[in-house]
Sequence to fold (306 residues):
Amino acid sequence: MLPTIIKWKIFILLGIVGAVVLPFYGYGASQATLTMEQRYQQVGQTNQALVQAYRWFAILNRTPISQNPIPADLFAPEVDVALEESNSPQNAIFSYSIENFDFTIKSDQDSKLKVQVLRQFSKQDQPELWEYVFQFRSSSTFLPQVQQIQKKPLRPANPVETLHNAYAENRARSAVYYWTVLLDQNTGEFQHFQEMLFQNQWTFHWVDGTLQSPEQLSQWITHRTNTIQKSSHIVDHLKIEPLDARTYKATFEYDWRGQNQSGETIVARTQQEWILVETGGRFPRIQSIRERYLLPLIDTGTRIRC
Fold:
């Protein structure tokens, strides 16, 4: 998150040309070389696809599934959604946890997200690793719509003593990635961010200041839009910890690259700690954010040194 430009914390890389390597699995083949322009597109669309995938698996995590309405913006209107687990035991516990992912842009309108998912119905069941492939089509909103989902079993997984709280993790992850999408779309429209705020009880502790009112956040969004021309955030080391039945803690790192209005490339890396609260909306809402700056990564995966 970049409230202001701090010259000794934000690194401006002048005259960058050629290609960058994305050393993070899933954001395009880990050894693939992308131009900066391709990075913006690849990272942005990957984050958008992950929002929808985590939302879908959160729905499948609930029992009974039939009582969980499917959001209208998740699937394309012409898609007939068949809830795949409808034949499972009525009182089964469902656990779907994404282990890793790989995203591919197929055309200007179409993309594909392949994920490996750890599935388990109850403590007594053998967990299994499955592959799900989401076919997406871009829409008029920030999020693509699912055109098709294909799945196949891969292999048995190692038994676990207790079921992972995958519902909490999928809900919290969807919120993290959606906020990230809003940052990188960078439209300056406050109402999209407002959906993510926990009532009037939220506080953002940026490195160089604190925001705790809609007016302050709106000014920050406007300043960011006027300062940053392009933006891409990679979410790294994301961990979710349920604090109680409706509150989650998310910790992760943002690997950020952007371009200012002068065309200079800027890089930064921040440690994020969020508190999220369930309110029954599309996403859990953000109660607090704390951040601190880390040394950024360069294309080889090593950190820039001051």
